Amino acid sequence: MSWQEITEAIILNEYYVTKEGEEITLECLIKNESSNIKLYWLKDAINVNLYLTNKYSHGTLNQPSLTIKNIETSDAGNYTCKLANLYGLSEDVVVLTVLFVQVAPPLHLSPNANESVFLPCEASGGNRVIWRRNGEEITTTGSLEYSGGTVIKPSLTISNVTRYHAGNYTCDTSYGSVTATSDTQLQLSVKGTEIFRHTINCIKGIFST
């Protein structure tokens, strides 16, 4: 038996990245189809139930690539395209990463000036977390003003909040070119006048009289 006679299942990409709610196709190619008996997919070593037609399509000998619909975080994992033929078994593995991000309530925060405020965010699947205020990215690295906003600690803390921090905040997580953004925004408004700026204004007033 020569190598050319052996049927193989070949994964085109070693990993895929997607986000909740989307649809993705894990591509698998079959070589030398004449000796094929059966093709099936496994997720984390457990057979994928192709009868769940609202969740999966294809993934058969005729259409070996597997399409997953309505992606959820629970769909993340290692997928195996496994082919049985007259000569034995052939398989190849692909990793599916699913991005998830959400900001947690309360969605309206009104701290007093000069207080610290905590903006909660849950994020998974990405290798970067980004906070935005009114659509503009916030730089948290090396900041004395902000802490958190990382993969390990995605929630953001603002120290000594001022009225200039007021606005709409969103939390993103990304992996490569794929980005997931929180569906809802956190609205931050600041009550009172920050002590530092008020003190400066008072000093200016004294020297101007």
Blueprint (SSEs and pairs):
Blueprint: E1 8-11, E2 15-19, E3 24-26, E4 28-31, E5 36-43, E6 46-47, E7 56-58, E8 66-68, E9 77-85, E10 88-103, E11 108-109, E12 117-119, E13 121-124, E14 128-133, E15 136-137, E16 146-148, E17 156-158, E18 167-175, E19 178-181, E20 186-188, H1 195-208
Parallel strand pairs: 2-10, 11-20
Antiparallel strand pairs: 1-4, 3-8, 5-6, 5-9, 7-8, 9-10, 10-13, 12-17, 14-15, 14-18, 16-17, 18-19, 18-20
Quickly describe the structure.
By secondary structure, this protein is mostly beta strands.
What is the 3D shape? Answer: elongated
Taken in chain order, the helices and strands follow as: EEEEEEEEEEEEEEEEEEEEH
- The CATH topology of the largest domain is Immunoglobulin-like
Total DSSP E strands = 20
Total helical elements: 1
Strand content: over 45%
Distance between the termini: 101 Å
Looking at this structure, what is the CATH superfamily of the largest domain?
Answer: Immunoglobulins
Pfam family, one: Ig_3
InterPro entries: Ig-like_dom, Ig-like_dom_sf, Ig-like_fold, Ig_sub, Ig_sub2, Neural/epithelial_adhesion, Profilin_CS
Keywords: Disulfide bond, Immunoglobulin domain, Repeat, Signal
GO molecular function: actin binding
Word description of this protein:
With 209 residues, the protein is mainly beta. It folds into two domains: 3-98, Immunoglobulin-like (Sandwich), CATH 2.60.40; 104-192, Immunoglobulin-like (Sandwich). It contains one helix and 20 strands. The chain has one helix spanning 195-208; strands at 8-11, 15-19, 24-26, 28-31, 36-43, 46-47, 56-58, 66-68, 77-85, 88-103, 108-109, 117-119, 121-124, 128-133, 136-137, 146-148, 156-158, 167-175, 178-181, 186-188. Strands 2, 5, 6, 9, 10 and 13 form a six-stranded mixed sheet that branches. Strands 11, 14, 15, 18, 19 and 20 form a six-stranded mixed sheet that branches. A hairpin with a 2-residue loop joins strand 9 and strand 10. The radius of gyration is 26 Å and the shape is elongated.
